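re: that chain from earlier
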Amino acid sequence: MSKIPYTGKSQQARQGQPIQNVPADPLAAAENLPAENPLLEDPDALAARLVESEDFVRNNRNVLLGLLAAVVLAVVGGFGYYTWRNTQGTKAQNSMYRAVNYWETDSLNKAMKGDGKAPGLATVASEYGGTKAGNLANFYAGVAALKKGNYKEALDDLEDFSSDDYLVQSRAYSLMGDAQLELNKPKEAADLYAKAADHNANEYFSPGYLLKEATARELAKDNDGAVKAYDRIINEFPTAQEVAEARQYKAKLESAK
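^ sequence. v structure.
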């Protein structure tokens, strides 16, 4: 929140609201000051206003009680939902623990479907989709499906995953591109590789994603698009190790014209 005081250049002043004149002499009375509050000057007016307020409360008692009840229910409901979400998150993490262990040891069937005692990644993702663990289960499940050659399943799982960590999210886009490439959809794959490269672009990972994009563009017979991807590597990330490959592949494409 801004701490800049109200001045003649503030938003209120620019919108045409009147600015109170302040006299040069700080001890003099300011011009055009508003009159004192009539309720403070006139006890009868204050008493009449209090009577009106009492009448309003009396006549609208049911409505006010209903509003109060709605507020209470909203607060209680919000607290209950927050508690439930925390409980679900704990359950999801506990359920996911063994599945991830199987995933790390390449026991992919058990990782995906469970071992009869603990659920697999697919179950965690579907039953706890609103939790962080459930969301992460989609990523693990997508990678497992990709390793097993279930490319459509991998694509579906990874599409259900989202992350605030730009490196992980970029990786997910790239893996989705891998799945599309295996499904013989090089244009869709190239678009996903480009998305991975542009998601908080950086010199460490973006060049590799752009190289994959260029390869997919070539497979899609889009040589101009491939050249643009190679040029991005060369011009935007000149110190990347992928630059040498980009120059080589670009030269081949241009010599083939």
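Confidence is low (pLDDT under 50) at residues 1-37, 72-87.
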